[in-house]
Each structure stands twice: as structure tokens, then as C-alpha cells.
């Protein structure tokens, strides 16, 4: 029996309860009677459940009675012990109400103090804000006045700027003014919305313009003298006021423009040659004439990130000069020249980056992110270049695959990577062309990959259309003229299986090279791509190669059908055996028929003929297996039909002549026996022909069926 559960309330009653009855659940806050009963009724009979609930209710009533009886006397005497309750309540009400009043007064006082405190804090905050605003206005006004006075001092100092000491002092004053202008800019930015600051805007702009003019004169003078001290102070001043672009522009006007004018001669609008030489000359001149400026910037990291003279001065000027004097240099009209110029431009950028800083340094990163680099690279229209290359590459393959191309399936020379057919060689050349050094551009890797996969898909479509058309042509037989080629005209022109095997050889080689050589080329070109990207590219190439390889079995099957059709022509001579023995009084045969060696001759011509080099071992095995199996099956069918026909004819003749069986046996072998013997000799010879092809006739199920057909029918005869 199951152990009893304790009743509700924790009082043991000694009454056994089943395991499924848990009275403690009745006291749970989320207890639902309907759900509880529905749950138990699935495995507890209703009568048992009712019995347990009644028993539990009886226990609860018993416990309630026990509790009431235990404290009954105190419960009854409760009203007698409570005397003068109203008087006690009245005595307590007055002090409680007094306490409440005092608490309310205290709360009101605290609330008032809090409001006063908050008001004082708010006024203090307003006063602090007003004080800050006033200080900002005073600072702005004072700094502006100070800057104006300093500029007047600088203007007086400039009168003695002919000497080296005067130029250095002048630059030092400008640096000091620039630091104050930097502070002025900060104050003006903070108070930009204040009317007072807005009223000072014209004066602020005036001192900013005046400082810029003075800095430009000082910088150009320092550049002319190659004075490192003056240049350093001027560059510090430019950096302080955030006008690095103006410094780059000044260097561009003073130093870069003359050397670029020398290195980029005026050319015709259509002159696209020797851009590499022009840009190399520019780099050499920059290294020689701009080195002292670059050295000053490189010595201080803050300046190396603030100024980017290789981009802002050199590259900007070179881009403008090329656009004005040699605009054809950026033209993509002639892809080969465009690519040469594009590579020259990339090398030029690399050289300028090396002047900016070492690879990966903040200065080099700043160079690559400079707007001048973006403007220069945008001049090279890679989209147009790819469009021209796409047309150039795709047209070659389309021409080779075109139905009107007379030599689309003609053999090609030894320079075609081992391929025998022009379409396959053209497809492989087109794929290789996409990734050649004189065509490929790293920035167009995704487009050239897509084009390569499209070339493989185009070849696959051409191959599949040819296979389908030739299969339909073979199946149609004499009605081949009604076949809809649908892009497979090239296959209809193939009159022999040897041609299909050449196509098979080329397609297999193309698929193999795509998996190996083309995949290796992609790995080399995409060496810096993420591993996941490289894996996806390899999978896409493998998929394209697999689609081509999937047509190889169909090519062999169509070749099998073509060879079987030719072999079947020789099998038609089988029917002449009956005529030969019925029309002539030939003796019992001892040699096989002359047609038997010719049955498999079409297959022998294919596997051992001039095209045997195009047959792989696997393809040869499948071809031989397919042809032998189908020819042997047809041989068996014809043999059975012939023997049955001969036997029926022999039986009819015997009935007509009413010849006795004994007399027939004594007269020598019948025509039927001779025919069956001839068939047996022919089948044995056919087995020897199979052996010459490397086929073990004894292991061939179709041959066993053929041999059994001759023996069984002969016995029946």
C-alpha cells in the first residue's frame, strides 16, 4: 500500500491517504479546483476521488471543532472582560489629535524651508550662469582686444622683417597671436547664440582674415628661404587656428605648382602615353624640393597628423595639372593604356604615402583618408574600363560558340593549352584573360570573378544544348530533320561518335583546370581576402566546374547510342541466315557467319582508332560497357525472334507435308537445326570479338542471356 500523506493543518490522523492525494495543494495561492479535479480524473476514478475529498472534509471539521472547544471559555468571556471601552477611547483621542496637529505644523515648516532652499539654489544657479556668461563675454572682448593689439604689434614688427632675426621674431609673434585666436575661437563658439558675441562677429572675422594674410606671407617667406625656425612657428600657428588646409594651399602655390609645371608638360588632349614617367618625375622633384618641409612635419607627431602636404599640396596640384594639360590620361577609351596609367597612378599614391609616414602610422592613415586621394581615385572610371573589358572578353567566346561560326568545333593549334576545340580553348583563354596582369584590377575583383563564372556557365549552356540536340537527333533516326536544335546546331553537325568524344575530352579538361589552375589563380589574387570569402569563391568555382562535369555522362551516353546504331546495321544480316539455309541445300555449318566480326567494328574503330587519345580510361570503359551491353541485348532479341520464326515455319511445313517423325530424322538435319547451329557458332564468335575488346563474355549477363537463347531455342527445335 502507498504511504499515507499528512492531512492539512499538520495533524496526523492515522488515516491512510493515496500518493496522488496531496491536501497541501488546497492551501496554495493559485489553487484552482476545476483544474485539480480535471487533472486527477485522467487517472483516478471519480468515486475514489469523491471518497478522499469527503474523508478530508470530515478531518477538517473535526480539527475545527477541536480548536473551538480548546479556547471556548476564553472566547465566551471576551465580552465580559471588555468594560468602559468608549471612555478609554475618548481619553486617548485628545493626545493623538494633538500629536497629529504638531506633526502637521512641523511638516508645513519643513516644506516651506525646502521651497525657500530650492528657490535660493535656483537663484544661485541663475547667478552662476549669468556670471559665467558675463565672464565669457568679458573673456571674448578682452581676448579680441588683445588679438587686435597683437596684430598691430605684428604689423609694426613687419617693417623690420628683412633680416633673419626679424623674420623669426615675426613668426614667433604670429604663433603667439594664433594661440590667442585659438582661445578667441573657443569663446566665440561657446557664445555663438549671445547677441553680444554676434555683435563682435565682424571684428572676429577681421582679425581672423588679417592673421591668415600675415601667416601666408610669413610662410611663403620661410619657404623661399627654407628657414626651418620660421616654418615651424608658422605651421604651429596654422595648426592652432585650424587652418591646415590654407598652409597646404600655400605650400602648393609656392613650391609644388612650379615643379609640377616642369614635370607635367603641356600635351594634346588625346595624349595618354608615358604617365608613369611623368608621375615618377613629380615624385623625384618632390623628394628633392619638398623634403625640408616634410622633415619639419615628421619631427612632431601632432604636426604630422595636422598637415598632409603629400595629399593637400602635391596630389591636389598634380590632379589639377593632369586634368588641365593631359585629360586623356584618365580616359578608359583604350583599356590597355588606361590600365597602364591606372597602375602608374596607384604607384604614385604609394610613393606619396611613403612621404607622409611609415605604413600604418597615423600620418599614413590620414593621407589615405584625405579628400584629395578620393578626388584623384575618382578620376579613374573603373566601371567603364570593366565594361570595355567585359565586351572584349565575352565577344571572343560568343564568336567561338556562335552557330554561324563555321569553325566553332574545328580543331585548334597546339598553343591552345591542350584543348582540341575552339570553343573550349576560347572559354579557357577568356577566363585566363580576366585575371591576366594586363587586364586584372584588384578593385574589380568581384566583377571579374562574376565574369569568370559567367563564362563557365555560358560554356555549360552551350555544351548542354549540344548534348540535348544530339540525343534527340539520335533518337529521331530518319526523322532527324525535325529536331529542334535550340542552340545545339554544332552537335548536329557531328556525324560520328568520335566527335562527341573529343568534346568530352575538352569538357573534362576544362572542368579539371577550373578546379585546379583557376582556383589557384584566384587564391593568389585574393590572398589578402578573409578566409571565409576565399572559401565561398572556391565553392562557386567548384560549382561551375561540376555543372560542366555533369554533362560528361550524357556525352558518353549519346556516343554509346550513336555507336549502337552503327553496330545494329551489321546485326540486320542475322535475318539472312534463315533465307540462306531455306533457299539452298547447304550442309551443316561449321564456321561462323562473315558478318559477326563486323558487328562490333564501329566500337573498335572508336576505342582503338585515331581518336583513342581523347578517351580516358573511365570514358573508354563506360563506352565499351554501354555499347556491348546494348548490342548484346539487341542480338539476343533478334536471335530469339529468328529461332521462333524458323521453328514455327518448320512446324507448318511438316504439317503440310505430313511427314512422319522417323522419316524426318532419317533424312538428315533439318533447316532449323542448321540455322540454330549457325546461330550458336555466331554467338561463340561474338564472344571472341568481345574478348578482343577486353570484355569477359562469361562475366557479361547480356551475353549469358544471348547464349542461353540459342541453346534453349535449339533444344526446343
From TrEMBL:
<dbReference type="GO" id="GO:0015031">
    <property type="term" value="P:protein transport"/>
</dbReference>
<dbReference type="GO" id="GO:0000139">
    <property type="term" value="C:Golgi membrane"/>
</dbReference>
<dbReference type="Pfam" id="PF06148">
    <property type="entry name" value="COG2_N"/>
</dbReference>
<dbReference type="GO" id="GO:0007030">
    <property type="term" value="P:Golgi organization"/>
</dbReference>
<dbReference type="InterPro" id="IPR009316">
    <property type="entry name" value="COG2"/>
</dbReference>
<comment type="similarity">
    <text>Belongs to the COG2 family.</text>
</comment>
<keyword id="KW-0472">Membrane</keyword>
<keyword id="KW-0333">Golgi apparatus</keyword>
<dbReference type="InterPro" id="IPR024602">
    <property type="entry name" value="COG_su2_N"/>
</dbReference>
<dbReference type="Pfam" id="PF12022">
    <property type="entry name" value="COG2_C"/>
</dbReference>
<dbReference type="GO" id="GO:0006891">
    <property type="term" value="P:intra-Golgi vesicle-mediated transport"/>
</dbReference>
<protein>
    <recommendedName>
        <fullName>Conserved oligomeric Golgi complex subunit 2</fullName>
    </recommendedName>
</protein>
<keyword id="KW-0813">Transport</keyword>
<feature type="domain" description="COG complex component COG2 C-terminal">
    <location>
        <begin position="378"/>
        <end position="683"/>
    </location>
</feature>
<dbReference type="InterPro" id="IPR024603">
    <property type="entry name" value="COG_complex_COG2_C"/>
</dbReference>
<dbReference type="GO" id="GO:0017119">
    <property type="term" value="C:Golgi transport complex"/>
</dbReference>
<keyword id="KW-0653">Protein transport</keyword>
<feature type="domain" description="Conserved oligomeric Golgi complex subunit 2 N-terminal">
    <location>
        <begin position="20"/>
        <end position="93"/>
    </location>
</feature>
